[in-house]
Amino acid sequence: GRTLTITEKTNYLLFMINVFQSLEDDIVSNTVLKLASLQVWSCLSHGRFQMEMCLNPNLLKKWQKMVKKESKEAEKRREPFDLSSKLEVRFVKNLIEEFLEILDSQVFPPKQTDDGDSIPGGSEQVDSECVLYCERFMEFLIDLLSQLPTRRFLRPVVADAAVVPKCHLSALYNHTDGWLFAQLVDMLQFYERFEINDHTGTQLSDDDVLVAHYSRIQAVQLSAFKKFPKLKELALANAGSIHTRADLTKKLSTLSPEELQDLLKLVSCKDPWAERVDFLLEVMVSFFEKRQSQKEAINALPLYPDEQIMWDESLVPSINYSGEGCLALPKLNLQFLTFHDYLLRNFNLFRLESTYEIREDIQEVIPHLHAYINREGETAFRGWSRMGVPIKEFKIKEVKQPNMGEVKPAFVTADVTFSVSSYEAHIRSEWNSLKEHDVLFLLSIRPFEPLNSEGAAKSTVPERLGLQFVRGCEVIEIRDEGGGLMNDFTGRIKRDEWKPPKGDLRTVTVALDTAQYYMDVNAIAEKGAEDVYGTFNILLRRKPKENNFKAILESIRDLMNESCTVPDWLHNIFLGYGNPSAAHWTNMPDLLETVDFKDTFLNADHLRRSFPDYEVCFIGPDGNKVSHPEPPFRLKLPKALKTSTHALSGNTESVSDAQNDVNMVDTGCELEKLIVEAYVPPDPAPYPQDQPGKNSVRFTPTQVQNPLFLSYTLFSTTQYSFIFGMNLCHLGCFPFFSVCCC
């Protein structure tokens, strides 16, 4: 058939993305999962295949059985047996090869010389349609590696093709028009290295990741000692001295391409990139370098947004997303790799959502300040803003030493002095109401003066606003001009000793983000960057109801730093695998025998109608039958409890229930007995006002099951899983636990 255009290839990729995002559909999954089966390993290079089989020896028998079956079928068809030539096996591999060809030769159109010849990739202008195709293909691979059913066998295929190293060495990765592509490549690398056992689905601990790293280092040292005398220093070095990218590159750069291939054995000799030394070094270094753990990465990430992330259109678009292009954002699918993966996606998305809101507030405040350059060459302000005030003085107060095992400071505090003299009384009271844990933002503004109208048209939003830097901070305390403590809720100032604030100057002691401070100090020391903390001139506050993002992000980060125990019946359902009905309380392996319904039932008749398929027998605490039972009731559940399929809402009575009862009696079938114990609750106190309130709602049969499930959740899960649920409930990430945590 005809060759597809680049636009058609992009649309085809978009179709495949939607297909692999619909694995919950049985028809779709039964069709497309054939493209991600064990058979695809037949297209791996010899070295990669041997390594995967050594790491997963239990797959060897399955592989041999599959090869034997396929060979018999080929023999019946009287065809030569070649598993690697099947369409299902070559499908993803062919897509990857096509992408690499486009990335290498079509993103930058050929440049025409004076002689009429064309130089491949000689043009500096990129083909926007090819760039969109490359971005969509990165999204496609990310989706494949972020779902366990497709990741299990396709991750080695992606690693064998060395997609990430080739993208790192491509011209588009470092081009200004390839900023989104570079972010997607980094996200693909993250999921390719994700800390999970692809075949069991269990999350790897930090110790497991470290042991795997040392095993790789030991293997390359042993191979280097046997084959290459020139690498004797590498072979005898301790693992800690050669785990960085710089150390490995320095020691391996002495080898030729043939020697690198012999040492690595993870690159096929048929690969067109196999002769490039920089490519082989990149593959070697990326495979053997020590990788930053997920916990270290999340702890090194600042909680407050800075000016770079705020105006990054690929992360925080300023207009409504139309779907024409892709974004470097994680997707909230129906399936997740691990709980850490789920929390990390929510962390990133909520962080970017709050960044968008903060950016909108900044864009609203700065124009009202009317910044200009005065005669002394400093920034001054003609206007005023309710939410932003000029800073009189800013100074770092204290920088504590890092905690053991960390590089960022343990604590960084600063004093910010500003004046409220120019404000009216009601606005002044708002600034005086700042209290501990309020989040503020420090802005550095320098008016932008374009040389001409063309420069003004090409300027970015931060340039038009004159915004240079943005840093977040958290209030520790606020003092007035006389040094008196304001809004203290710690008990240092007694209520009868409170005095109104003195003067117009206010000094706020704030805690800076230690991760951001460490990054800024490193940039000053290594790159000679400007000292951010000497340029702040505006203090910005936000509405308290919209400014709780830091506490939520801290809660999610704390959850990711802890090892949360989740009940077995919830684990697979939460991650999007298994049968959802397995989490129903009637299917639990350790179902409770007796459940106290307390005041759920209004009377005995209400209880009978809630269980129409059973003969309800009331007994007292002594075991004797009770003729006139009164709530509360305890139910002794049978081993196989039937559920009503015709529940009605409200107080509507079911006529079919009575009809069904008549039919059951007519046919002579005996109903199973449901033993109900009526008991007298303990008296809380002799006074009427101490009596607890009672339920007045006539719950339907379906609603009655909720307390059963609630009881099972509260009493059969561990303490840690319940705490985990409470945290997720407060975050709004898992509303299922909202009932359990009330």
UniProtKB/TrEMBL annotation:
<dbReference type="InterPro" id="IPR032174">
    <property type="entry name" value="Aquarius_N"/>
</dbReference>
<dbReference type="Pfam" id="PF21143">
    <property type="entry name" value="Aquarius_N_2nd"/>
</dbReference>
<feature type="domain" description="RNA helicase aquarius insertion">
    <location>
        <begin position="592"/>
        <end position="691"/>
    </location>
</feature>
<protein>
    <recommendedName>
        <fullName>Intron-binding protein aquarius</fullName>
    </recommendedName>
</protein>
<dbReference type="Pfam" id="PF16399">
    <property type="entry name" value="Aquarius_N_1st"/>
</dbReference>
<dbReference type="InterPro" id="IPR048966">
    <property type="entry name" value="Aquarius_b-barrel"/>
</dbReference>
<feature type="domain" description="RNA helicase aquarius beta-barrel">
    <location>
        <begin position="373"/>
        <end position="542"/>
    </location>
</feature>
<dbReference type="Pfam" id="PF21144">
    <property type="entry name" value="Aquarius_N_3rd"/>
</dbReference>
<feature type="domain" description="RNA helicase aquarius N-terminal">
    <location>
        <begin position="2"/>
        <end position="292"/>
    </location>
</feature>
<dbReference type="InterPro" id="IPR048967">
    <property type="entry name" value="Aquarius_insert"/>
</dbReference>
